[in-house]
Specification:
Largest sheet of chain A: 2 strands, antiparallel
Organism (chain A): Sitophilus oryzae
Subcellular location (chain A): Nucleus
Strand order of the largest sheet of chain A: 1-2
CATH topology of one domain in chain B: Immunoglobulin-like
Strand content of chain A: under 5%
Structural class of chain B: alpha+beta
Distance between the termini of chain B: 54 Å
Distance between the termini of chain A: 122 Å
Oligomer: heterodimer
Radius of gyration of chain B: 33 Å
CATH superfamily of one domain in chain B: tricorn interacting facor f3 domain
Shape of chain B: globular
CATH topology of one domain in chain A: Histone, subunit A
Radius of gyration of chain A: 51 Å
CATH class of one domain in chain B: Mainly Beta
Structural class of chain A: mainly alpha
Order of helices and strands of chain A: HHHHHHEEHHHHH
Number of helices of chain B: 39
Pfam families (chain A): Bromo_TP, TAF8_C
Main location (chain A): nucleus
Keywords (chain A): Nucleus, Transcription, Transcription regulation
Strand order of the largest sheet of chain B: 5-4-8-2-1-11-14-13
Chain lengths: 287, 1214
């Protein structure tokens, strides 16, 4: 098996055979051929290895003929007759090594047309695989983003969530029945538990969550502020035309006002905010 | 004309100062221990008797100048209104007795529940003009009225023990008109003003909010409690004194630091939002009246379970917690701001300026509402204001036409007209007698009447504005305020305090001084006479003369609530060339007038038409006749109290709706157009709904009107259901009109329209009388696609409106099934299933995620009731009963009760009715009781004089017991029940009770048994005329030992009561004779018991005489000679009656005595434990009637529920 599969070994075997033919052998036993092939292979390997070592020893990466000679010397092999042998010229020339035929892909497995390699990639690089290996094929529908269906979907989702929640709650707590019979009550009403205090849950609703901004929003002050800004802008425009003196006054007034506000906020004279007094002697007497 | 004694002059003394100190306020026991000291200035030296108001208080001691203990008597006639009259069950008689009872305690009648006799040894203290200090020690035990403790129910308290703050425990005072006597002894008159010192000792974590300036807060020596010291230096009358104690969160108004707001824990963010613009209200009033706010501070307290939405007291108002809202709520804002503005207006007129007589109430109410109206006009706009006036006028007209003319000031008859002799006088008398209650006292008037009279007062004030002009009217107010401010800064000695009281006469004079106009006739016409005018206008166009012949008739002058009007009347004609006003003089019931038209008819000329506002508009005149008149209006400014019926062709109404700029005219046109279901009407209404320039309420009304028009036009209605296209145009999204846009409520007009149109559409019916499936689908889609995620406002009201619409689509079931088969899920129709699914889902969702005020739950309940009513669901009350329980949110409870009342009316059993009545009697929330009664009045369980299975003597007794004695502590509720009684039975004896005269012949039912029974104590009494005197002498001993006497009285009552009850209980008792036997037997021991007791013991059931005190008998004499002459007369009279009755009864007895003895024995075996509270109470007043007149007991025994509860605690009192 090895003999057939490995092209080098095959070549060596052929070489051994041709040498044997030169030496006028007609036939050889398979085992002998195998042994000789093995010996030749070992010899070539050894010589190659030594050559490489000598080459590297002398700091090169490519061996010279000298390295080969050194290798022969090192092995103790007399190679003087080699030249004569080569020059005798009666050797059969081995056929060139046949490039191995790539295994033919079966038609049924190829999908689509293979892409050719782009110019910047050297031709020796492997070919592209079949397109199906890298082309993304959409496997789901594109989302529909028109208004109507988005609303539809949002509505359905909301309803489902609500339904699931109420169903769960209805199953986990006591219910009222709108009908006389108990069976098949598909419209259970959750019995209510009185909250205490009753007004808290009613006045602080939880059905929606609002931005704190909305909860604090003061439409009137917003409008006022806008008006004020508008006025200020106008004033600024007007004042630009007038003398610079007045321009100074305006911000001054403002600062005074804001200070006033700040002060009043800091100290509010309201009896309910005052501290509770300690009992005085008189009051103890009265008590 | 010598005027009678007024409220401020009738008493023989003046009040200078009063100290009120409440020390032991206990939330656990719901009790209060307190002390008051009244500084009284006698007006004459001979003053021996002081009459003071006090109710349900337990009085311990009365001191004069701290040294002399004075003797006192106490009685409360409201504990048994019909004293001797035990068998009549007619309101005719009750109304009389009710008035008598009210007058007996009316401080403005120089009367009072508490009669203090100045002992002779202290007589030297009394001198004209010298201050006399009267100190009274008292306590309150679980008060039933006047003061309300909000404490979580017991069972819940076990679950979580928390601090008061965590539990939101608080208390506050309330009352109907002058009811401060319910929580402290005082002169409970609007006319008796004095300065106040108020002290309240409360737990450390509590805040006590009261009238006047908070001087200081001081810890008690044990550091566990603190005392709030208030001082009110502006003379104020007792009804304007109030108190609220609770773990309040305090918010000082950032704009006005004198103003402080209080709310319950957890509600601070809402409080800040709610009170955000309050300072503007103050500024507005101060500017308008050009007078400063009269007090130095103002406080607003928001409390739970409030008696009414708001009540203004001196320097503070107590408001309902349900007025609070966050910034994302729209609908509530209008209501809340109006309520707060009204409360502030009442600070000026109502608190600062009090009134001379209660009958001057209309002035303060009228002026404050008028000011509040001006504020509303400024902040909500003129359209809102006009619409409000219009609806008020309609309410007044409706009330007057149903019940009779409202007389704002009944204290004085109108001056007789010089021409028509005393026509108005007789007129008035006639009107007055029509009412089933007396309008002569605040404590007998129906709450409905009072409410309507407030509205009328406001309207009259507005009429005055039209007569004398806004500026001058404000000057009159300014003058009153200036005088009062001046008076307030003086001491009592200056005698100027009278300026702080307003009265009809004073006001009329002030108008005269300021304007030079004598308004006496106006006052006589609209204030001292009841009723309104009713005009009927028809017109014909005379082409030849180019005139319009107008005929104004007043046909119905003899009808209830309507009277003839004489005087000028404005008629406005809109012609092609403009608006023309014509002042017609109304002198007769029929007035005809030819008005020459200014413009000629010109059909096809294109020219703009000028309107009353001056603008010129294009009109499509093709619909017109050849008359140049486009529309006619009568009294367009509402300067009279009137109802107007104008007859004009439909196209004129349509023009009026399309082009008249006045909202009232538009509203009237809409009302009129209901009668003309034609395509042009449809076009006009559609135009109005779509018109963005139009006032939103008009647009909403037009929508509802279009529903009716569409239903009337069902046969030839073309196109999709009414308003579907309009709704889609306004609210459908751009890409898909059938899907509603995401909610955006920035424009309130559109918001209200968005709420209203689905509601209006739900009323549409097709030719089969059912709601078109398209509409139902449309509504369900609105639910489905509702998306509030991008909105800055809450959509809870909108969703509630959708649920309501869904309910409105329901029509009576068309069932193929046989009658009587039970309704099950399987045989519901597809539509019902869809509706039900939506409702159950929303209702269930509310449990986890409640919305503001549970608006959706409220509407879901109503929708379920509709489904039940129309046979889609089995009619069952259980669901509503559970929602109606105490502990739920009030709006939910009210909705459930509304459904329950509706159920009772349709298929209720007596049990269900008594469930409702039990709530009506016993619910802890007084506000709910009142509203429940209003619901009952709106849909009474059965119609008067119709046979009903619910109508039974038991029901009569139940209501009667309440109005006769059980509700002495809550005037409003008592009068509410009188209203209910009237609605069910009229003023005569209920038909379900057999006539008294026939009782011998007919089968006897319960009430007559009652009569016989109750006669017994009197029998005893008549036999022992001495009792009275004995009891008088007993006073002292009872004062000494109030607790003991109380218990004993109870014991005393029980013995005879059992006898009573045995047969009262028994409904099967049919025949009189056997009862009589019983009576005979039962009466004997009782008689003995009483006479023995009263003869031997002065204490009327006291175990033994505690001892006589010097001066005891002397005082006795005093009492009967001066103080109680009136009551004595009364008892004498009744005594005579009783004797007569007794004789009758005796005759009966002898006749039948031996016939049915065996039967009677059976009855006696009945379980006496079945005694019901009601019956018990019934007999209490009956027995009490014996003693009431004469017996003065230290404790008032307000009702049997509490009479003996907690008496043990009291003995701890130092």
């Amino acid at each position: 098996m090895d003999l057939q599969t490995n092209p080098y070994r095959k070549m060596i075997a052929m070489t051994v055979s041709s040498i044997l033919k030169e030496a006028n052998f007609d036939t050889t036993e398979k085992e002998v051929l195998g042994t000789l092939t093995e010996m030749l292979q070992a010899f070539i390997c050894e010589i190659g290895l030594l050559t490489k070592n000598y080459c590297e020893l002398s700091g090169r990466s490519e061996p010279l003929i000298a390295d080969v000679i050194l290798g022969f010397v090192d092995m103790g092999f007399d190679f003087s007759s080699l030249e004569a042998y080569v020059k005798s010229g009666k050797h059969t020339i081995l056929p060139a090594l046949q490039p191995q035929q790539p295994q033919k892909q079966l038609n049924m497995l190829s999908a689509g047309k293979k892409q050719t390699l782009p110019s910047h990639i050297p031709a020796h690089f492997p070919q592209f695989p079949d397109p199906h290996a890298y082309v993304r094929t959409p496997t789901h529908k594109q989302p529909i983003i028109d208004y109507e269906s988005v609303r539809e979907k949002a509505a359905a989702q909301k309803k489902d969530v609500e339904k699931a929640l109420t169903k769960f709650l209805a199953k986990t707590s006591a219910t009222h029945n709108l009908f006389d019979t108990e069976e098949g009550n598909i419209f259970p009403l959750i019995a209510l538990k009185p909250p205490y205090p009753p007004y808290l849950s009613a006045l602080l609703p939880q059905d929606q969550i609002f931005d704190p901004e909305d909860l604090d929003s003061d439409p009137k002050s917003l409008i006022m502020q806008q008006q004020k800004e508008h006025k200020e802008a106008q004033n600024a425009r007007e004042e630009k035309l007038e003398e610079p003196m007045e321009e100074d006054e305006q911000p001054l007034n403002d600062t005074i006002k804001s200070e006033d506000n700040a002060q009043s906020n800091a100290f509010i004279d309201n009896p309910y905010l005052a501290a509770t007094k300690m009992p005085s002697k008189d009051i103890i007497d009265v008590c | 004309m010598r005027q009678q004694k007024t409220g401020d002059t009738i008493r023989p003394f003046k009040l200078a100062h009063q100290i009120l100190s409440l020390t032991g306020i206990s939330f656990d026991r719901k009790s209060i221990i307190g002390f008051v000291e009244l500084t009284v200035v006698p007006l004459r030296d001979s003053l021996r008797i002081l009459k003071i108001n006090a109710k349900q208080c337990r009085i311990y001691k009365v001191f004069l100048n701290e040294h002399h203990e004075a003797h006192f008597q106490y009685f409360d006639p409201f504990l048994d209104v019909c004293q001797s009259d035990t068998d009549t069950r007619s309101l005719d008689a009750f109304s009389q007795n009710h008035l008598t009872a009210a007058l007996k305690t009316d401080p403005d009648n120089n009367a009072g529940e508490l009669v203090i006799t100045i002992p002779p040894e202290a007589s030297h203290l009394v001198a004209e003009g010298t201050a006399l200090r009267v100190g009274i020690e008292f306590s309150l035990e679980q008060p039933q009225g006047g003061i309300h403790f909000v404490v979580p129910p017991k069972d819940q308290k076990d679950q979580k023990e928390g601090t008061y703050a965590e539990k939101g425990v608080h208390m506050f005072t309330y009352g109907h008109q002058n009811s401060s006597r319910l929580w402290f002894p005082c002169v409970d008159s609007f006319a008796e003003t004095c300065t106040w010192k108020l002290e309240f000792t409360v737990d450390e974590e509590m805040t006590a909010v009261s009238n006047g300036d908070l001087i200081e807060v001081v810890f008690t020596p044990d550091m566990r409690r603190k005392t709030y010291h208030y001082s009110l230096n502006v003379p104020t009358c007792a009804p304007n004194i109030s108190l609220a104690v609770g773990p309040f969160e305090i918010f000082v108004d950032p704009y006005m630091h004198e103003v402080t707001h209080f709310c319950l824990p957890g509600l601070m963010p809402l409080l800040k939002v709610t009170t955000r613009y309050m300072h503007e209200t103050f500024e507005f009033y101060e500017e308008t009246l050009s007078n400063r706010y009269p007090y130095s501070c103002y406080k607003q307290v928001f409390v739970d379970e409030a008696y009414e939405d708001y009540h203004s007291y001196a320097t503070m108002s107590i408001l309902s917690v349900n007025l609070l809202h966050s910034a994302v709520i729209i609908d509530q804002v209008f209501i809340t701001r109006k309520a707060m503005a009204q409360a502030i207006a009442e600070q000026f007129f109502g608190c600062f300026i009090s009134m001379q007589n209660w009958s001057d109430l209309w002035l303060n109410k009228g002026i404050s509402q008028y000011l509040c109206g001006l504020y509303c006009k400024k902040s909500f706009g003129n359209n809102e204001y006009r619409e409000m006036i219009h609806s008020m006028l309609q309410d007044v007209v409706k009330y007057e036409e149903e019940y009779g003319g409202i007389i704002l000031d009944p204290s004085q008859p109108p001056a007789p007209l010089p021409v028509a002799s005393n026509m108005p006088q007789t007129n008035q008398n006639k009107h007055e007698e029509k009412f089933y209650f007396s309008i002569r006292n605040l404590h007998t008037m129906s709450p409905m009447y009072i409410e309507a009279s407030y509205k009328k007062a406001m309207l009259v004030m507005r009429m005055l504005e039209h007569r004398i002009g806004l500026e001058l009217l404000l000057q009159v107010f300014n003058k009153q305020l200036s005088l009062a401010t001046n008076a307030a800064s003086n001491k009592i000695g200056s005698g100027l305090w009278g300026h702080m009281l307003i009265s009809t006469n004073v006001f009329t004079k002030a108008i005269f001084t300021v304007t030079g106009k004598d308004m006496a006739v106006f006052i006589d016409q609209w204030v001292r006479t009841g009723g309104h005018a009713k005009f009927h206008l028809t017109s014909v166009f005379n082409r030849k003369r180019n005139t319009i012949e107008v005929e104004i008739r007043q046909d119905a002058t003899s009808q209830t609530g309507i009277r003839k009007y004489v005087g000028p009347l404005l008629v406005t004609l809109q012609e092609l060339d403009g608006t023309f006003k014509h002042n017609l003089q109304i002198e007769n019931t029929v007035v005809k007038s030819d008005i020459t038209c200014h413009s000629k008819s010109r059909r096809n000329k294109k020219k703009k038409i000028p309107l009353c506002t001056g603008e010129e508009v294009d009109m499509d005149l093709s619909a017109m006749d050849d008359s140049p008149v486009l529309w006619i209006r009568l009294d367009p400014e509402m300067t009279l109290l009137r109802s107007v019926i104008i007859e004009q062709p439909d196209y004129q109404w349509q023009y009026q709706l399309r082009h008249e700029r006045d909202v009232t005219a538009q509203i009237e046109a809409i009302t009129a157009l209901e009668r003309y279901p034609t395509p042009p009407t449809r076009a006009a209404l559609t135009h109005t709904i779509e018109n963005e320039q139009c006032y939103y309420k008009v647009r909403c009304k037009a929508a509802h009107c279009l529903t009716k028009v569409a239903n009337a036009m069902v046969a030839n209605w073309a196109g999709p259901p009414a308003m579907l296209a309009i709704f889609r145009k306004f609210f459908g999204s751009f890409a898909a009109p059938h899907i509603i846009k995401q909610n955006n409520f920035q424009s309130f007009q559109n918001y209200f329209l968005q709420k209203t149109i689905p509601l209006a559409m739900a009323g549409v019916r097709n030719s089969h009388g059912i709601c078109p499936p398209e509409v139902l689908r449309f509504l369900l889609d609105l639910f489905k696609y509702n998306d509030n995620s991008k909105n800055r406002f809450s959509d809870n009201y909108y969703r509630a409106a959708l649920v309501e619409s869904l309910g409105n689509t329901v029509t009576p079931v068309v069932s193929v099934m046989a009658q009587g088969t039970p309704i099950t899920v399987e045989n519901l129709s597809a539509e019902t299933k869809l509706i039900l699914e939506e409702i159950t889902r929303l209702l269930n969702l509310e449990k986890a995620l409640p919305c503001y005020k549970y608006t959706i739950t409220v509407e879901c309940l109503k929708a379920i009731r509709k489904l039940q009513k129309f046979g889609h669901l089995p009619s069952k009350p259980t669901l509503f009963k559970s929602y109606a329980q105490f502990g739920h949110y009030i709006d939910v409870r009210l909705a459930a009760l509304e459904c329950l009342v509706d159920f009772v009316r349709a298929d209720g059993k007596f049990d269900d009715l008594s469930y409702v009545l039990d709530l009506l009697e016993n619910d802890p929330d007084s506000g709910l009781r009142h509203k429940l009664c209003q619901i009952l009045l709106k849909s009474p369980p059965f119609k008067r004089a119709y046979k009903s299975r619910l109508d039974s003597p038991l029901l009569v007794e139940k209501i009667w017991t309440n109005i006769n004695g059980m509700l002495s502590h809550d005037t409003r509720h008592r009068c509410d029940l009188v209203d209910l009684y009237y609605t069910l039975y009229g003023t005569k004896r209920p038909l379900c009770l057999p006539l008294t005269e026939l009782s011998g012949l007919m089968n006897l039912t319960r009430p007559d048994i009652k009569k016989i029974k109750t006669a017994i104590p009197k029998l005893a009494r008549a036999d022992n005329p001495d009792i009275k005197k004995e009891q008088h002498s007993n006073i002292k001993t009872e004062i000494k030992e109030p607790v003991v006497s109380n218990v004993i009285v109870d014991n005393n009552l029980e013995t005879p009561m059992n006898v009573d009850l045995i047969d009262i209980e028994d409904h099967q008792l049919k025949e009189e004779p056997m009862i009589d036997v019983q009576v005979g037997e039962a009466a004997m021991p009782k008689q003995e018991y009483f006479s023995d007791n009263s003869v031997s013991l002065p204490g009327m059931g006291q175990s033994g005489p505690v001892g006589f005190e010097p001066g005891m008998f002397q005082k006795d004499g005093d009492g009967s000679s001066t103080g109680s002459t009136k009551t004595k007369d009364k008892t004498d009279a009744s005594g005579a009656k009783i004797k007569k009755k007794k004789k009758d009864k005796k005759k009966h007895k002898h006749k039948h005595k031996h016939k049915h003895e065996h039967k009677h024995k059976d009855k006696k075996d009945k379980d006496p434990n079945k005694i019901k509270l009601k019956e018990e109470s019934m007999s209490v007043p009956a027995l009490a009637s014996v003693k009431e007149e004469t017996l003065s007991s230290g404790s008032s025994t307000p009702s049997p529920n509490t009479a003996s509860v907690g008496s043990g605690d009291l003995s701890n009192y130092p």
